[in-house]
TrEMBL record, chain A:
Pfam families: OmpA
Lipoprotein is among the record's keywords: yes
Topology term for the membrane: Lipid-anchor
Localization per record: Cell outer membrane
OmpA-like domain residues: 76-189
PROSITE patterns assigned to the protein according to its UniProt record, in alphabetical order: OMPA_2 (PS51123), PROKAR_LIPOPROTEIN (PS51257)
Annotated keywords: Cell cycle, Cell division, Cell outer membrane, Lipoprotein, Membrane, Palmitate, Signal
Name this polypeptide is given: Peptidoglycan-associated lipoprotein
Signal peptide: 1-23
InterPro entries linked: Bact_OuterMem_StrucFunc, OMP_bac, OmpA-like, OmpA-like_sf, Pal, Pal_lipo_C
Lineage: Bacteria, Pseudomonadati, Thermodesulfobacteriota, Syntrophobacteria, Syntrophobacterales
Primary residence: membrane
Entry similarity comment: Belongs to the Pal lipoprotein family.
Any one of the GO CC terms: cell outer membrane
TrEMBL record, chain B:
InterPro entries: 6-blade_b-propeller_TolB-like, Tol-Pal_TolB, TolB_N, WD40
Chief site of localization: periplasm
Stated family: Belongs to the TolB family.
Gene3D superfamilies: TolB, C-terminal domain, TolB, N-terminal domain
Keyword flag Phosphoprotein: no
NCBIfam families: propeller_TolB
Name of the featured protein: TolB protein
Keyword list, A-Z: Periplasm, Signal
GO cellular component, one term: periplasmic space
Residues spanning the signal sequence: 1-26
Statement: the UniProt record of this protein carries the keyword Signal: yes
Length: 189, 441
């Protein structure tokens, strides 16, 4: 198991490196009330942060009126949705890294109280299908419990398990499996 | 859902040909004692059926190949290579008087299937006869009348008769296997005959469908689908094609298992916050909670008498198989070997529970006595082997395996682990097989 965690951490660290590198080269956005410096990791994807993809009524409902506010929201949202938490094999225990990520999600949800979240639980392919559906549910539930314990209104949160049905990495090795043992967060408003 | 997936066959057994001269003896004599450990496969010849005229061209070969394949699959027969039948023994004639038994005997056959097919008012008429080559006499004979597209089923039916005559228990070669086909990003449920032929699609939602489970009367399939967003349970009537929602509670609605009386199902729901096993009626209404713990409880499988339930619980921290006595609520842990034992399937005779166990990162199929007294490993690390399901006669196990090419397909083996054969040869991956009960279709 140690090996797995180490590889995961290395993977995550490399991910951070790559992302912060690209952030440095592409743009230097000042940290906007950031929780951690890596807030500026957001890569600039044209269209993704274009505020026109959300209509005016929705912006009003979200209580976001100025262009910088809206742009900030879109960046934070993109990060929120891109940052999964990972689990060890056949486990739904939150790792330290996962708790840090969830703390950032709590920050986001506090700052944007109109936003709702679906927590998806996922598994790697090694287990069997039905057990993995149940395990995915427990993983989503672990994240849900952490968010609720941190003061997020449970009415804003929903859960779904996809078991091993929707892998993000399709390889048949530990590197892929580690990426698939995750909870993923989807925003709706 | 489109057209019905199954129709009552207009297939009729017209005549059961006179079999034994001494009927009284026939019932008692069992040719093959399949319980003998040193059993040797019986050599049998299945030459092409004779065709009355060109209107049935190719059917004679097809019918013989279906019978031959069934017999081979059963593990009880060694089907002789038809290439050796070109000699004078292959001369026309299906009656005992016409058959050169001595020549078949010299060719190594102890049993012989002969038959003929012809066009008829219903479409197709077939006649099959099983001969004991050594005793030089007819063992069993049947005439089938039906549509031309029923040809395969006629052949499967006669293979059933061959087993009934020689082992005392009818075969189940006309049953079907439901499975999940993963292709182009979606998972759909299909049916096939037990030789992998006669494929029929059950779902077509472009979503994720899982865990097909036959009702005991073979009329309905319960299954899981995400097509309405969350994993819910549905039941489709295979004859009318109509689908209804079975369970749509909050959270998980998964792992359906019909109680053997067909009046209720054991399912896994997480509506109360944790995946537990519930008993629901035919309409999905919760009757009682069957198995619950602080941890995951999932994948129920009924004992054939409906009094007990094998299931998976992770209450010790990792998934193991347990057996629950439904009346008393008493549960006992069954598996102690390994840290990941899932997907239990209780044999139709009640004598074994098959399951998938993980060892060194690989899933293999095991069988264990319901009291835990004996355990056997049937597959040995050739790819991942999962989701065992028993044939209705309890002699075979279908399962999914990645042993060939890394992609999952449905395979079948005898319950002693021998006679492993691949059933599906399709694009994509095939998983989660569920073997039908004996059906009159």
């Amino acid at each position: 198991m140690h090996k797995i965690v180490n590889r995961m951490l290395i993977g995550a660290a490399m991910g951070l490196l790559i992302l912060s590198f690209s952030a440095c080269t592409k743009k230097a956005v000042p940290v906007q009330g950031g929780v951690v410096p890596s807030e500026q990791m957001q890569t600039e994807a044209p269209g993704m942060t274009s505020t026109s993809r959300i209509d005016e009524a929705t912006w009003q409902a979200l209580g976001l009126r100025t262009e910088p506010e809206r742009r900030r929201f879109l960046q934070a949202m993109e990060r929120f949705e891109n940052e999964d938490i990972y689990f060890e094999f056949d486990s739904y225990v939150l790792l330290e890294e996962a708790r840090m990520i969830l703390d950032r999600k709590v920050e986001f949800l506090r700052r944007y109280p109109k936003v709702q979240v679906t927590i998806e639980g996922h598994c790697d392919e090694r287990g069997t299908s039905e057990y993995n559906l149940a395990l995915g549910e427990r993983r989503a539930n672990s994240a849900w419990q952490y968010l609720v314990d941190s003061g997020i209104d449970p009415a804003r949160l929903s859960m779904i398990s996809y078991g091993e049905e929707r892998p993000v990495a399709t390889g048949h090795d530990e590197a892929s499996w580690a990426k698939n043992r995750r909870a993923h967060f989807v925003i709706h408003f | 859902m489109g057209r019905p997936l199954a129709v009552w066959l207009t297939l009729a057994v017209l005549v059961a040909l006179m079999a034994w001269p001494h009927q009284g003896v026939a019932a008692e004599r069992v040719y093959i004692d399949i319980t003998q450990p040193n059993f040797v496969r019986l050599p049998i010849a299945v030459p092409d059926l004779q065709e009355a005229d060109s209107s049935t061209q190719g059917l004679g070969t097809l019918l013989a190949s279906v019978v031959a394949n069934d017999l081979d699959l059963s593990g009880l027969f060694r089907v002789l290579d038809p290439k050796g039948f070109l000699g004078p023994e292959a001369a026309p004639g299906v009656t005992a008087a016409e058959i050169r038994f001595d020549r078949w005997r010299r060719g190594g056959a102890e049993f012989l299937v002969r038959g003929r097919c012809a066009r008829s008012s219903t479409g197709l008429r077939t006649e099959f006869r099983l001969y004991d080559v050594v005793a030089q006499r007819l063992v069993v004979g049947k005439i089938y009348e039906g549509r031309r597209e029923d040809a395969r089923i006629m052949a499967h039916r006669f293979a059933n008769e061959i087993l009934a005559a020689l082992t005392g228990e009818a075969g189940m070669f006309d049953t079907q296997i439901a499975f999940v086909q993963a292709k182009d990003g979606s998972k759909e449920i299909f049916l096939m005959d037990i030789d992998g032929e006669n494929l029929k699609r059950v779902t077509g939602d472009g979503s994720t469908a899982l865990s097909p489970a036959w009702s005991p009367d073979g009329r309905q399939l319960a299954y899981v689908s995400y097509f309405e967003g969350t994993p819910r349970l549905y039941a489709v009537d295979l004859f009318s094609g109509t689908r209804r929602t079975l369970c749509a509670y909050a959270g998980l609605n998964i792992s359906p298992a019909w109680r053997p009386d067909g009046e209720a199902l054991a399912v896994t729901l997480s509506k109360d916050g944790n995946p537990d096993i519930y008993l629901v009626d035919r309409n999905g209404r919760v009757l009682q909670r069957l198995a619950a713990s602080w941890a995951i409880d999932v994948s129920p499988s009924w004992s054939p008498d409906g009094t007990r339930l094998a299931y998976v619980s992770a209450e010790t921290g990792n998934p193991q198989i347990y057996v629950l006595d439904v009346a008393t609520g008493k549960k006992e842990r069954l598996t102690y070997h390994g840290k990941y034992n899932t997907a239990p399937s209780w044999s139709p005779k009640g004598d074994w529970i098959a399951y998938s166990g993980m060892d060194k990162g690989r899933n293999n199929i095991y069988i264990i006595r319901p009291d835990g007294s004996e355990i056997r490993q049937l597959t040995h690390g050739e790819g991942d082997n999962e989701a065992p399901t028993w044939s209705p006669d309890g002699r075979m196990i279908a399962f999914s395996s990645t042993r060939q090419g890394g992609r999952s397909a449905v395979w079948v083996m005898l319950y002693n682990g021998e006679g492993v054969k691949r059933l599906t040869r399709l694009p994509g991956e095939q998983t989660l097989p569920d073997w039908s009960p004996r059906i009159r279709r």
